[in-house]
Design brief:
By secondary structure, the protein is α+β, with helices and mostly antiparallel strands. The protein folds into three domains: about 170 residues, Beta-Lactamase (2-Layer Sandwich), CATH 3.30.450.20; about 100 residues; about 160 residues, 2-Layer Sandwich (Heat Shock Protein 90). About 60% of the residues lie in helices and about 15% in strands. The strands form three sheets. Strands 2-1-5-4-3 form a five-stranded antiparallel sheet. A five-stranded mixed sheet has the order 7-9-10-12-11. Strand 9 and strand 10 form a beta hairpin.
Length: about 525
């Protein structure tokens, strides 16, 4: 089982068991080490004591040359099972007495003093035998240290296993109780958190069980939930208020857009009326000239001449030859016919001009009607044709104010626009340029219109004038709603133009070097994306 993903109670039990097991292991290990140290020390001391005791009893046997007595003394080691052998050698190396076989473990040279040597699992103790300061021989004792050590280790291991088993049982009982005491409140607190997270019901509170640390944590948690509940209610009120404000803002924005569209349409209609008015002036002049050419004074003279000739009747021959007035009539008729033919020709010219002007009026009105009908309809068209239409809408105003128009058109791909919106933007920009040049009154009013493609995705239409310019501090405000520097300005012409450009996927930007240096507006329109049919296929 992955303890990381286990419940808190299992984790707590695991920690307690692990801690207790480690503590017991350390304690038992330390106890075993201490006990084994003392066992080893006591074993060595016992061997040494036995050897010294035997060494004090053996000199009499050697002095009386009684090996049997010495053997009896050595055989007394049988009461201590861990002694497995003993041997008494005299100074000349002769074996005097022994207990069991130990010849294989006896070194060749007798030591000068007592020596204890570990040989595999046995201990060899060499004890000199002396009497009144004279050395008589050497006593060799062999003790089975390994077997005793193994017995001790087995005993300690059995005790250790028993302690571990008993401790584990006790720890399990204690840890279960402790886990319930500690994790029980935490489990209830966790279930409260899950309930709040699942239902977003911040009115739920955790139950406090006791006045301990967990109880204090529960109180803090409940206070935190209370603050969250208050904040949640406040946020809900703010959201409702914000939604209401956004709805009002959307309604106001829609009203402003509608007002800007109406204003743009009014500006376009004003341009149309100006153009129609200019053409009507020409129509009026042509009609007046035709009326003058069709004046009745010459026809009246011709009628009187015809009546006079009818009155003469049969005397016409004498009248033409003898009467001074009669002789003038043929010449008068010839001159009158020439004048009538000339006047007829002039009238025809004026009538033709009148017809063209009337057709021009029809074209302007029809264009405005087409734009009104096509509002909201996206078309693919040449950008220069759109600029020319805007110029036709404003040409009368530009001529009246003596503004020279310079065209700089490059060959560009089709653009995808709503004619009506694009026309409103261009007419607005041209009229603003006219006002700017009227306010500056430069020696030569110059309006430059450029059509080009600076980036692959857009066609740029640039309107540049040499008018009053724009101060640097106003460059960031000119597209803001309600901002205007004209006395009679409404302040949403450029704002609505920028919004309309954005709605069509384009952009409207303005630049100026400062007051007196004119202004430049760049209208970017998205080009028509031509699909690659072969790639699609």
């Amino acid at each position: 089982m992955n303890i990381r993903n286990a419940p808190l109670r299992s984790k707590l039990r695991f920690v307690i068991l692990t801690t207790c097991a480690v503590a017991l292991l350390v304690a038992c290990g330390a106890l075993f080490t201490v006990q084994f140290f003392f066992f080893r020390k006591e074993f060595h001391a016992d061997v040494k004591a036995v050897a010294e005791m035997l060494a004090t009893r053996l000199p009499s046997s050697i002095d009386f040359d009684n090996p049997d007595r010495a053997t009896e003394i050595l055989q007394s080691l049988a009461v201590k099972p861990h002694f497995t052998g003993a041997l008494l050698l005299l100074n000349d190396g002769r074996k005097f007495a022994g207990y069991q076989a130990v010849d294989a473990n006896i070194p060749a040279k007798q030591p000068a003093k007592a020596v204890m040597t570990h040989m595999e699992s046995d201990i060899l103790y060499e004890q000199p035998v002396e009497y009144k300061g004279e050395r008589l021989g050497t006593l060799y004792l062999v003790a089975d240290y390994g077997t005793q050590a193994k017995k001790l280790i087995s005993l300690y291991f059995a005790i250790f296993c028993g302690v571990i088993a008993l401790s584990a049982f006790i720890v399990l009982l204690i840890s279960g109780k402790l886990a319930r005491l500690v994790t029980g409140p935490l489990d209830r607190l966790a279930s409260t958190v899950k309930r709040i997270a699942g239902s977003n019901d911040y009115s739920v509170r955790a139950q406090k069980i006791a006045d301990d640390e967990v109880g204090g944590f529960t109180d803090s948690f409940n206070r935190m939930i209370e603050r969250i509940e208050d904040r949640d209610a406040e946020l809900r009120r703010e959201i409702i208020e914000r939604e209401r404000a956004e709805k009002e803002l959307q309604n106001l924005h829609a009203q402003l857009l509608d007002a800007s569209r109406q204003a743009g349409m009014a500006e376009v209609a004003t341009g149309v009326l100006h153009n129609v008015g200019n053409v009507l002036n020409s129509v009026n002049v042509s009609a007046t000239l035709v009326a003058e050419k069709l004046g009745l004074h010459r026809l009246n003279n011709l009628v009187r001449t015809a009546e006079m000739l009818r009155d003469k009747g049969e005397e016409l021959a004498d009248f033409f030859t003898k009467d001074p007035k009669g002789r003038l009539i043929p010449g008068y008729i010839a001159d009158l016919s020439k004048h009538l033919v000339a006047e007829r020709q002039e009238a025809l010219v004026e009538l033709e001009l009148l017809t063209k002007n009337i057709e021009h009026i029809k074209e302007i009105v029809s264009m405005q009607q087409n734009y009104a009908r096509l509002a909201g309809f996206v078309e693919r068209l040449q950008p220069e044709s759109l600029v020319e239409d805007a110029l036709r809408m404003t040409t009368g105003s530009l001529h009246r104010h003596h503004i020279e128009v310079v065209r700089d058109f490059s060959k560009c791909p089709l653009v995808s626009v709503e004619r009506h919106k694009a026309l409103q933007i261009l007419v607005n920009l041209i009229r603003n340029a006219k006002h700017a040049m009227d306010d500056a009154s430069p020696p030569s009013k110059l309006l430059t219109l450029r059509v080009g493609q600076d980036v692959p995705e857009f066609v740029t239409i640039t309107i540049e004038d040499n008018g009053v310019g724009i101060p640097p501090e106003n460059l960031t405000k000119i597209f803001s709603h309600g901002f205007t520097t004209r006395k009679n300005g409404h302040g949403f012409g450029l704002h609505s133009a920028a919004l309309a450009a954005q709605q069509m996927g384009g952009k409207l930007t303005g630049y100026s070097k400062g007051e007196g240096h004119g202004a430049t507006f760049v209208f970017e329109l998205p080009i028509v994306v031509v699909e690659n049919k072969e790639a699609t296929a």
